[in-house]
Structure formats: C-alpha cells, structure tokens
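Need tokens for this chain, all 115 residues.
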Amino acid sequence: MTAVAQPDMATMARRYQALSDPTRLRILDLLAGGERCVCQLTEATGAAQSRLSFHLKALLEAGLLRARRSGRWMYYSIDLAGIDRGASYLESLSQRTAKQAPMEHVCVEDGSCCS
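Here are the structure tokens for all 115 residues:
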C-alpha cells in the first residue's frame, strides 16, 4: 500500500473555509465557464466591488483562484491544481474511512469512558 502524503492541515482548512460562503461558491460557479474580469464578476454577483474583492482575496489565499493583470484590469480563473488538491484530500479520506472496520465501543454503565 502506498502511503498518502499528509496535506498541510492549515492550508486545507483555509481551502474549505473559503468554500463555506455562498458568494464564493457563486464566484467559482461563474469562473467554471472561463476567465472573467472583476467587472464581470461584480455585475454577475451584484456585490459591491469592495465586497467582491474581499471574497476574491479569500479564494486566492486558499489557492482556489488565479489572478492576472492586463492593463488596469484584473482577470480571475479557477486554479485547477488547488481544486484538485482539495478534492484529492476528501477522496483519500473517503477511501481510508471505507476500509476501516466498524469500531466496537462499549461504554461502562457509569459512562466514565465517554466523559
């Protein structure tokens, strides 16, 4: 059996925390159609540019987006490697869990083992 490298848990937590916001999920959904300018994202989400910038920064720091500047405009796209790392971790977790035999746990009557 090949050992799976353990991911940096702080990075993984940041990645999943970034996914916990409906606006950020909407941004990712919009970017699944391809690269977009920040003005296009502002219009599509209905968010103020300052609020949208906050969400874009969280997604960038989580490694889920890429940004590039062209003149005075910023363009965003999905960072597939970041998405794949997050998905791979969950896949690995699922596979390891599926291989585990159910754990028998019997509490003593006074409940001291679960306190």
